[in-house]
Amino acid sequence: QLRLVESGGGLVQPGESLRLSCAAPGFTAPHYFIGWFFQAPGKDREGVSCISKSDGSTYYAGSVKGRFTISRDNAKNTVYLQMSDLKPEDTGVYYCAADFDRAITVETMCTTSTGDFWGQGIQVTVSS
Predict the structure, then answer these.
(1) Is 78 helix (H, G, I), strand (E, B) or coil?
(2) Which one of 8, 20, 46, 107 is separated from 92 by 20 to 30 angstroms, measured CA to CA?
(3) What are the φ/ψ torsions at residue 108 (nearest 5 degrees)?
(4) CA-to-CA dists, residue 107 to 17, 44, 127, angstroms
(5) Dihedral sign (CA 84, 12, 93, 100)
(6) Contact of 83 with 18, CB cutoff 8 Å
C-alpha cells in the first residue's frame, strides 16, 4: 500500500505563489507516475500536472501552463507543484495520485484522472 502525503496548501492572495508537496515515505519503486489533480467546489476533479518518476517527462493542463511547475526529488520520494501567479479560479482541493501502469503516459494520467493511490487532498484558497 502506497501512502501519499500532501502538504503546502493554504490561503494566498491573487498573484501570489504556493508550493505543494506530495511525499511517498519509504517508497522506492523505480517507475511510476505522480499527478496533481484539482477539484473546484461543485465541479469534477481534473488533472493539473503529471510527471514520470523515471524519466521526468511532464504534462501540464492548458490552464496552468506557464504558471505551475512540477518537479521531483527522487531521493526524497517527493513531487512538488510550484504554483505562481495564483488566481481565484485556482481555489479548490488539490490531490496527488500515483499510477503504476506502464502503458500510460503523463498526458494520459492527467487527462483521464487515473491513479492507483490517492492522497487525502489539500485546500488551496486564492482570495483577496
Answers:
(1) strand
(2) 107
(3) -60, -45
(4) 24, 18, 30
(5) positive
(6) yes
